[in-house]
Every structure is written in C-alpha cells, then in structure tokens.
Specification:
The protein has 408 residues and is an alpha+beta fold. It has six helices and 21 strands. It has two domains: 134 residues, Immunoglobulin-like (Sandwich); 261 residues, Metallo-dependent phosphatases (Purple Acid Phosphatase, chain A, domain 2, 4-Layer Sandwich), CATH 3.60.21.10. Helix 4 packs parallel to helix 6.
Length: 408
C-alpha cells in the first residue's frame, strides 16, 4: 500500500498521469524526440518476481505499470538508499509480489530529465511503450520447454536464425549460457544482443544471461551487471520452474589467475572457492531435495574429463579454470545428485555420458560460433523425463539426451 502511494505521488509529480495512452517507442521517431533505444525486455524470471529493463537516448526516470490483462494496473519503480533511480539512460525495475503461474500485462513509462538541479528538476517529454504480456514461473507446472544459446561471440545476427530452427513449440524462457561476446569493450556489443532479444522474444519471454569466460574480459566487463538482472547481485543462483530445480553457476575464467594476459586483475580462484561454499548450502535446501529434476547450467563443462588432466593437452593452462571449478563444484553436486548439466565453451556440440567416479549425470554441450558448429539447445520437461536436443543451424538434431525421472 505504501509503495503504491509513493508511486502515485511520483507519477503525479512527474506528470506521468497525463501520459495514460500507450505510445510505442517506435512512434517517437524522428530521433530528435526522446525515445527508447533498447527494450523493454524481460529478465530473470522467478515465481514471484521478474525484472523489466530498457534504455533511453536521454537521461530520464521511469516506472513500470503492470497488472492482470484487463485489470487494474499497479506501478513499480527502482530505488536505492532512499533515492528513486533518475537522471540515467539505463533502467531496471524489479516487479515483486507476483503470483506464480500468472499472466500479467506491462508497459514502461519514461520521463525525460532536461535539467537536474539540486532543488529543481526540469522534465521533458514522456513516452510510454506498448503493452506486452508475460507469465511468471510456477513450480506447479507439469510440462514446459526452454531454450539455451552459447558461444555466440559477437554475432547477434544468428540469434534469430537459431530461434527459427528451434521449432514453433512454446518455450517459457531463454538462457544465454555465456560467451555471447568476445570481450566486453563497449555498450554497443551488449545492446546489439539485447536488441535481437527484444525483437524476437524478450518482450514476452524472459531472458537469463549467464556469464562465460569471455564476458569477464574487456574494459566494460566490470560494468556488465548494470545491464543484467542478477539475484542478490550474483552470477550464481537457483530458481524453480515446474518439476525442475535449476542451479546457475559462474565458472569464471579458464586459465590461471596469474596468466599474463589478465594483467594481475582477476581473482577467480578465491571466487570459485566462495561459490563452492554457497553451493554446498544450496544443495541442502528443501527446494533442491524435493525437486523431481535437478539441472545445472554453466558455461564451462567442468565435470567433463577434459578438465581432469590439463597437463595432457598442448595448452594445459586452457583447462586449469575448469579443473579448479570441478574441485569446488563437482563433489557437492555429485553427492547431492544431479540429473543434467547444460554447458558450452568447447565450441562443439557434444553429449558427455556419465563418467563413473567423476559425474553420474550426462553433460550436453552446445556448439560454437562458426558456420556448421552453431546450435541452439531445446529442453523439453515433463513429469516423467527431461529431453535436451542440440539443434544445428540446418534444423537437424546434433545431440540428444533423455533423462528419465528418478526415484529419490
């Protein structure tokens, strides 16, 4: 109630109440008009929350109006340390208190800030996006599908190409499982990817962007979280949907922290140890224990035996990070029991079967960015089985993995 009161005051103070009729961002052209440049798009779906992200061409403040289709709208905005987000071009608003498995409509309302003085703010144009709809996750669902990309490496144009071969069947969310860029050098690389997501699915189907080793490189790598919705600000977390408990891990860099090319500016070995301690607690939760299926999503397939003996390869340092990830992530996952790992990194679609003494679960690895190696993974979930299929750019299945439900 208090948040709604604050929101109404904010709307009135900014003059948003006058902008009640939806005006699509595209309708604000020509470019001398204040407009939305990226989004709005959905990120990080949960059962009771979801984040809406968008960018504007000028500094502004904004809110999200949302509610059941045809019903009353609520208003949400972002604030930190008592200050409502303002005077910026990048906007992220988390919608909280949602109902699992429920459809909502939403739109964003942005107000340009022309001048920001200490005791007086001058506002410019107000723009409103079109209404779109989304559905929250729901662990009560019995069947669903999701899609996984990996190793796109700064080639956003093949995001829609792979989406076409994934089939027409519905999917509930999309995972970008790392190395979507070569290295994060400028904002344009990020927005080029997000624009493809917006154009083809992310206004209605939420996106989850997991970090690969290439997202850790480049002068803007440390600012990447500003563009992403990350639970508790971390790249590693869990969530539930249908009969599946998901664990998203951040495997970090693939080489030693002391590697010359990192210039002494990475600290992944302590980071993975810290994450491993978190993982030991995560697999003890009721949500993990009660789930019919347990799926790990990570960029580097650290349980793959290729990580077991880095010294046997021509460039052994390439697998040191994987070996270290297995040291800290492998045992707790093996002891707790996992059904499937979905990974990338190796640039070749591969199905790694269970390996006695190392991992009791299969690993499906997506392909790479070269023509002929590109894949999208579709995972179909039912009460009785998980089926993961890596689909090539020609539409043919490259690898298939079926995991039946276990008696726990």
């Amino acid at each position: 109630m208090m948040q709604r009161l604050v929101a109404l005051i904010l709307l009135a103070g900014l003059g948003f109440v006058a902008a009640r009729h939806p005006v699509a961002a595209a309708e604000t052209s020509p470019t001398n008009h204040f407009h939305i440049t990226t989004g709005p798009l959905l990120q990080m779906p949960m059962e009771t929350s979801l984040t809406v992200m968008w960018m504007t061409d000028r500094d502004s403040t904004g809110v999200v109006e949302y509610g059941p289709p045809g019903g009353e709208l609520k208003t949400a905005f972002a604030s930190q340390h008592g200050l409502i987000d303002a005077n910026q071009r990048l906007h992220k608003v988390e919608l909280r208190g949602l109902t699992p498995g429920t459809r909502y409509r939403y739109r964003v309302v942005a107000r340009e800030i022309s001048k920001f003085h200490p005791y007086r703010v001058t506002f410019g144009e107000t723009i409103t996006s079109e209404f779109q709809e989304f559905r929250t996750l729901d662990r009560g669902r019995r069947e669903f599908s999701f899609l996984v990309y990996n190793d796109v490496h700064d080639q956003p144009a093949f995001i829609p190409d792979l989406l076409k071969v994934a089939g027409a069947a519905p999917y509930d969310f999309v995972v970008w499982n790392g190395d979507m860029v070569n290295h994060v050098e400028n904002e344009g690389q990020i927005t080029a990817l997000l624009d493809q997501a917006t154009a083809h699915f992310a206004t209605t189907i939420p996106l989850i962007w997991g970090r690969g080793n290439h997202e850790t490189r480049g002068r803007l790598a440390r600012q990447l979280p500003q563009y992403l919705a990350l639970p508790e600000g971390r790249y590693y977390y869990t969530f539930d949907h249908g009969p599946v408990h998901f664990i998203v891990l951040d495997t970090g860099e693939d080489k030693r922290d002391t590697q010359r090319e990192y210039s002494g500016l990475v600290d992944f070995f302590p980071y993975r140890r810290e994450q491993g301690e978190w993982l030991r607690r995560a697999v003890q939760t009721d949500a993990f224990r009660r789930a019919k299926f347990r799926v790990v999503i990570c960029h580097m397939p650290f349980a793959n035996r290729v990580a077991a003996d880095p010294a046997s390869y021509k460039e052994p340092d390439t697998f040191v990070g994987m070996a270290h990830a297995y040291e800290h992530f492998g045992p707790p996952l093996e002891q707790a029991g996992v059904d499937l790992m979905i990974a990338g990194h190796m640039h070749r679609a591969t199905l790694v079967p269970p390996d006695a003494g190392r991992h009791s679960y299969p690993i499906i690895q997506g392909g790479g960015s070269r023509v002929g190696d590109r894949t999208i993974i579709r995972v179909n979930v039912s009460d009785t089985a998980l089926e993961a299929v890596a689909i090539g750019s020609d539409g043919s299945p490259v690898q298939t993995c079926r995991v039946p439900a276990k008696q726990r």
